[in-house]
Amino acid sequence: MKTTNTGFEIKPEQRQSWQSIAMVWAGGMICVPCLMVGGVLSQGGLSIGQIVVSILIGYGLICAYMICIGMQACDTGLPVSVMAAGALGEKGSKYVISLILAIACIGWFGIQSATCGAAFASMVAGMLGIGTAGPVMTAVCTLIWGIIMLATACFGFKGLKWLNYIAVPLLVIVCIYGVVASFISNDGASVLAAYAPAQSAGLVFGISMTVASFALGGVISADYCRFAKSRRDVVKSSIIGVIPAGLFMLLMGAVMSIVTGQYDISAILASLGVPVIGVIALVLATWTTNVTNAYSGGLALSNLLGFDESRFKVTTAVAGGAGTVLAAIGLLNMFQSFLSLMSAIIPPLAGVIIAAYWVIGKGKRENFELKKGLSGPGLAAYLAGAFIACITGGTFAAFPVLTTAAPWLNLPFFVGPINGIAVSFIIYIILAKLIKKGGTQ
User: Fold this and answer.
1) C-alpha distances out from residue 10 to 13, 316, 350, Å
2) pLDDT tens-digit series, residues 149-178
3) Given phi > 0 = left and psi -120 to 50 = alpha, else beta, which region is 131?
4) How far is it, in rounded angstroms, from Cα 68 to Cα 89?
5) DSSP per-residue codes, 98-113
6) Range in 255-259, 272-276, 368-372 with the lowest mean pLDDT
């Protein structure tokens, strides 16, 4: 590998089993947002068969680019924020990609902490008999759970591994219990048998929603796949960790939405008279997903500030702490559209990373190098892919002032993030080969 020591490479003794990595992915999939996406699919009029096909295709697409990035991370031992220097140059990786990843991960950590804190505050208020939780109680609960989640993230991969070993099986049991109980109380078998939507939003809608639920996770997969012992382990951990858990959660969300009219497992369990179990399920589901945001945000922040991984606990604490404080004081509600925009523009990074390593570098570790400065082809290809992802994915629709002035900024087509990955992949190959042909570096 044509690179100097970056301080982020994984040592041989740090490598983990594929089962450990798969559990991290399963923990990331078992969350309330996935239940929500399943509910949206059923509300979109998709049949159960269409829902299953959408999930399998959507997560299949994610696993395809996730595996390519993950195998490169396994080869190089680098997180995505550093590995991106092979395509965008060290300055592009440090000042563009690391900044975007850090902001996105910090923001989503805060939003998840706020969701968890609000649910826990409501439960505490109910137990104390004071009715609705006030803003102070909600803020305190948000801070408490943000700190707890952050402490887990600061333990690094080992902390994530043990959390998911404990939480994932419990969450599966709770979700199954919720579905079975809601079936019994709502005559779910009859409701499900009679489910025959008159109109369907179609497979493209279903695939788009499925991809959106884990598009960012597929890119930051390098942060965890770098711990794999082999390329084969990356493939096994990605497929087995993502697809079964994703299929289970989205189907649970769809079925619960059809039978009860809502997808939120905590609300369903509360309606069944077991609110404490419902909140525990929501807390655990948020916890297993949210620690990955803090960990990846910390790694990106380390690269942005010029630190090596030895100081990742400090940067992870800063990243998670910033997100938690912003959530506790309510400021993140103002930035959700902005965070959604960044979640749309991050996936096209996969296109340039894959093209640089697997096409230009022929998938050989010895051909990989961290380019100095800023790589013009990499940055141009990435920006073009991100722009196409936003246009075709409807991202700019969240900013009416833009789409009113320029309607062509909102031209939905297939799946925005996948379109962006394809465009950045193709453009990078073309530009890299043109420059190589011209004899320029």
Assistant:
1) 8, 18, 21
2) 998 888 877 777 788 888 888 888 888 888
3) left
4) 19
5) HHHHHHHHHHHHHHHH
6) 272-276
Query: What length is written for the chain?
Result: 441
Rounded to the nearest 5°, which phi and psi values hold at 131?
Answer: 80, -120
Short-list 377, 133, 160, CA closest to 279 = 133
Domain positions in the chain are 13-437
What CATH number is given for 13-437 in this structure? 1.10.4160.10
What's the rounded Cα separation, in Å, for the pair 205 and 220?
24
- In whole angstroms, give the CA distance from residue 159 to residue 284: 14
Please state at what angle helix 32-43 crosses helix 48-76, rounded to 10 degrees.
140
Q: Which span out of 270-274, 325-329, 413-417 was modeled with the highest average pLDDT?
A: 413-417
Give the Cα separation of 60 and 211 in Å (integer). Answer: 9
What's the confidence (pLDDT) of residue 81? Answer: 94
Cα 342 to its chain centre, rounded Å, is 12
Residue 441 — very low, low, confident or very high, per pLDDT cuts 50/70/90?
Answer: very low
Q: Which residues contact 318 (CB under 8 A, 6 or more apart)?
A: 298, 301
Tens digits of per-residue pLDDT, 206-223? 999 999 889 889 999 999
- Whether 3 shows a pLDDT value over 60: the answer reads no
